[in-house]
Specification:
By secondary structure, this protein is an alpha+beta fold. The protein has three helices and five strands, in the order αββαββαβ. It has a domain of about 80 residues: SUI1-like domain (Translation Initiation Factor Eif1, 2-Layer Sandwich), CATH 3.30.780. About 25% of the residues lie in helices and about 20% in strands.
């Protein structure tokens, strides 16, 4: 009888897939993270310039913005228009083509963010 109880204990199931750690629902039907920012961080927006993996082309990364998906897209569009260049949103960060740190720092400070330059 004890062997039957041990074998009936559920150890792992692929029935629902991954579960959200916050609400314990399947990730596809999670309700706790819809409009929550990807990462709140310390409230400081960091600007850095990267060339790694881009064939020597410089890209300015805007990191640490406490915004959700739609707000982040709107801000990215406004920053790209201000600089007159293209860009993208990747992993919750805004990537702007070229070394635009001076222009972006002024624009983000106008919008009320605390901005620091990260790196060199």
């Amino acid at each position: 009888m004890s062997k039957q109880k041990q074998s009936s204990r559920l150890v792992y199931s692929t029935d629902v897939g991954r579960l959200c750690p916050g609400c314990q629902r399947p990730v596809a039907s999670c309700v706790c993270g819809k409009d929550r920012p990807a990462a709140l961080g310390d409230g400081i927006v960091r600007l850095r310039r990267e060339t790694k993996g881009r064939g020597g082309k410089a890209v300015t990364i805007v990191d640490g913005l406490p915004l959700s998906g739609a707000e982040l897209k709107t801000l990215a569009k406004a920053l790209k228009q201000k600089c007159g260049v293209g860009g993208a949103i990747k992993a919750g960060n805004i990537e702007i083509q070229g070394d635009q740190r001076d222009l972006l720092q002024g624009e983000l400070e106008k919008r009320g963010y605390t901005v620091k330059r990260a790196g060199g």
